[in-house]
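G., before I forget:
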Amino acid sequence: MSTVQTKGFLGMPKVKGNAIVMALYLLFLLLPIYWLLNMSLKTNTEILNSFTLWPADLTFDNYKTILTDASWYTGYLNSMAYVVMNMVISLAVALPAAYAFSRYSFLGDKHLFFWLLTNRMAPPAVFALPFFQLYSSVGLFDTHIAVALAHCLFNVPLAVWILEGFMRGVPKEIDETAYIDGYSFSRFFIRIFTPLVASGIGVTAFFLFMFSWVELLLSRTLTSVNAKPIAATMTRTVGAAGIDWGVLAAAGVLTIVPGALVIYFVRNYIAKGFALGRV
Amino acid sequence: MNKTVNQKAWFLILPVLLLVAFSAVIPLMTVVNYAFQDTFGNNKFFWAGLDWFRDMLESERMWDALGRQIAFSSIILAIEIPLGVFVALNMPKRGFWASLCLVLMSLPLLIPWNVVGTIWQIFGRVDIGLLGYTLDALGIDYNYTQGFYAAWATIIVMDVWHWTSLVALLAYAGLQSIPDAYYQAAKIDQASRWKVFRFIELPKMMGVLMIAILLRFMDSFMIYTEPFVVTGGGPGNSTTLLSIDLVKMALGQFDLGPAAAFSIMYYLVILLISYVFYTVMTNLDKREDS
């Protein structure tokens, strides 16, 4: 649909209905985020004593507090650490499995695929307590790797699902030609196949990042000090003197930034990824 | 695609199996263990048989939570699916504006769930939040920590805000895959806008919409963090959904037996409904392939 503007009522430029709908929807999405940003740039006095639509007394102190206090910014480093670990582990095990599901049929393949998916459907609340006991008993409590492994519960099935969708789109003749040319499986997989599904791997990595980054119930249950995620650190703002709204808002804004950065790179593949490679 | 039969493919699956066995099967067995046993402390356990299950099935608390959960999931599905499709139909098809819309719409999806809760907690406060302040100024009695309707409205609007974009993105991906020729044919036949939607766009979106419904159902049925941050399950128990109740029971009161029995029934309900969706979905896939 083109966005040709025609003259409408009283010679005013007529805007298409589509644009109005989108503008309203985006306004609905952005308003709460704007409010958080707005609050993060105010002093607590201004937040509590006057109601202003934009900061009258612009201040970056809230951000300074977070970026200079180690107990704050290590929260970000912890979150980053387990998210990256989880991405690496999930991709490493999911790549060969997705290849197997997309290329071969074998005993029980369909049941196995559904069983994997059931783990994506498992409520984290069900697993919180057993995870706590399991990781405590093997001495991994409060480590980054414990959270990374716990997040594999829902991320590995997701990775297999998305990658399988992308790999299905690669013609099988490529495999056969490579084997005739004398490639071994591992060389073929690393040298030829992986580059062919590179965009799929990128999209999968994005989704792994996303679901590990936004999850809190498991990561909070499995950590206390050393690996505490930033999202859990935010409860610190509740002190004896009430809630430090400015710092809370600033911490919130900073958790949105990494997501906003990675979105830009995958914007053209987001939809396909959400459709699990099946469009 | 025709697949070759090859039993050695199992070796490629092995790493996934081992990992999932460690991170899912072992913990799940612990839950099963607790569900059938009772303890008086000191790590001594007694066989309790199906007692916990009977207790839970007779407890009003669980049925109430289940009722609230079903109400919540139905309401958000009934709003998000049509709204998401509607937004997708209005999105620009290509170019700069399409990219911009995609990026901005994905933004809520990447915010940590407790920050989503925090955003709405702040946004809805009467003293410092834009929404609460505006409603208050309009003379509407709105307080999500005290009013039943205000609390429910807040968590539903929050979920719509958080996840409608997911449905819209999926529907958009489905729409993108429709060849222009279909629209041209419809134009020649002078089909109305509604008929184009009903007979061209909707059937083509069916596959991705099923994924959207499946994902939204699963995720809304296990929602925990966002409503917990905003209302904490209150006022009273009015927004205590299944996961909130379960965490209260397991980690708050440490009632391991009932909590485990609860967990297993909870999991089975999700599995059952998801299996139905999954079967419908794979059947749709097959029909499209043939």
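The CA atoms of residues 126 and 134 of chain B lie 8 Å apart. Chain B touches chain A through 91 residues (CB under 8 Å).

More on Monday.
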